[in-house]
Amino acid sequence: MELKNKIAVVTGANKGIGHECVQQLLEKGAIVFGICRSGCSHSHPNYTCLKADVRNLEGLSAAFQQVLDQHGKIDVLINNAGLGYFGHCDELPIEQWHEMFDTNVTGLFYATRLALPSMKQQGAGHIVNISSIAGLEGYQQVSAYCATKFAVRGFSDALYKEVRDFGVKVTCVYPGSVKTDFFRHSENITAHDNMLMPEDVANQIVYCLESPPNFHNVNLEIRPLKPRG
Ligand SMILES: NC(=O)c1ccc[n+]([C@@H]2O[C@H](COP(=O)([O-])OP(=O)(O)OC[C@H]3O[C@@H](n4cnc5c(N)ncnc54)[C@H](OP(=O)(O)O)[C@@H]3O)[C@@H](O)[C@H]2O)c1
Description:
Helix content is 39%, strand content 17%. The protein has 5 helices and 7 strands. The chain has a 7-stranded parallel sheet, sandwiched between helices. α3 links the parallel β4 and β5. α3 (94-122) runs parallel beside α4 (143-163). The termini are far apart. Bound molecules: NADP nicotinamide-adenine-dinucleotide phosphate.
């Protein structure tokens, strides 16, 4: 897809991988809407920050409606908003389980549902879902987060088969550890320079978005070459 003047929506746009995706989409000439529940980290004539929490269907619907009212379509959706809590299964607070599922899975489903009709109608579009290598294999003390990211993988795999005949691509991305604020809830892991860089992950996402019409990157697994240096 040629990204110039395309309408893109990125959830969780104010930092980390989402921030970098917005930055690179803007550099490609796209018109970008960021869904942020807190702070706005971009200032660009082609950028609009829409305040919404992906867990809240009413607020999220209003945000997507604003995009559709202004432009009549959505070409790209990057389902990036997400968070992780870690710890032993029997010690993980129940509310953290729900917060992760409500954000990482239900929020992603809501946003997809809001963007899909426009994509199907125009016979084109690209949805990028950010899973994790924790959606490919289990890690001890990461059971609940892994469950959310396996759910994203299953959802994405089913969805791509459902919507490809409508001309809509679905790419599921599985990054290893990325140097962002993501690890703020982890007692054992601190972000460091041997992790993936968020701008490099965003670069690969943009590369997938720019693929030719009849070319579909279904799954993108990305890991640091030397995670321990
Ligand atoms: N960093 C990693 O190692 C890694 C690896 C694999 C996959 N991932 C995935 O990559 C995605 C981005 O993570 P990141 O590393 O960039 O972490 P990050 O720096 O913590 O950014 C997460 C973004 O999601 C937003 N967000 C969280 N809950 C939200 C909600 N309910 N509604 C709207 N926005 C919400 C955050 O907004 P606030 O500022 O308001 O919290 C923030 O903008 C996540 O889905 C994460 O699971 C990360």
